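Supplementary Text 2. Reproducibility record for the structural model of the 191-residue chain.

All settings were left at their defaults, and a single model was retained for analysis rather than an ensemble. We include the record here because the model underlies the residue-level annotations in Supplementary Table 4.
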Amino acid sequence: MTLSAPAPTGGAVVKLESNNGAAKVPASVTVQAGQLSATFLVDTATVDTRADATITASYGGETRTVQLSVLLPRPKAIFTVTSPQYGKDACVLIESGLELDCRLDGKPSEGRLVRWRWELEAQEKIRAERSDPAFNEIDTKCSLVSGDSSATDSNGTYVDLKITLEVTDKDGDRDQTDRTVKLYTNGNCGF
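Retained model, structure tokens:
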């Protein structure tokens, strides 16, 4: 609220109210003598979903309102990949190439999340939507890998596996991240 004339000697006490606990304001703010306005803090709560509040300022028989939206913190996709056999950032084909032994864990992600969407891509893609952040016991088939793009290190033959995680919060906001890990064939799928 901007006063129509400078505040009088001793200042002008402007009454403040909020209609929603998601945005709390002090009971009043004093506009210093000779000034037209004053600043004050709005204390916002962490909300489960977007919340709209109306802030009302009253002084000298005049009232002004403003709308304020309190939003969820932006979601942030973060994940780890762990293989019991080779540790961090690796997966291994097991069960004759029909499963991956790694665990994809999206618990480090941030926000009020309701959905985790995983995508694994080498030669083909595997997609999975989850209502919880963990994805393990991943069914696959040998067409996911190709011997043409394989490499070898001290742990064996592998192909690059790109893993993408997209997270969605209660308001439908999304974030995604990806990383490339080693998918060891473990002698399955012909190489």
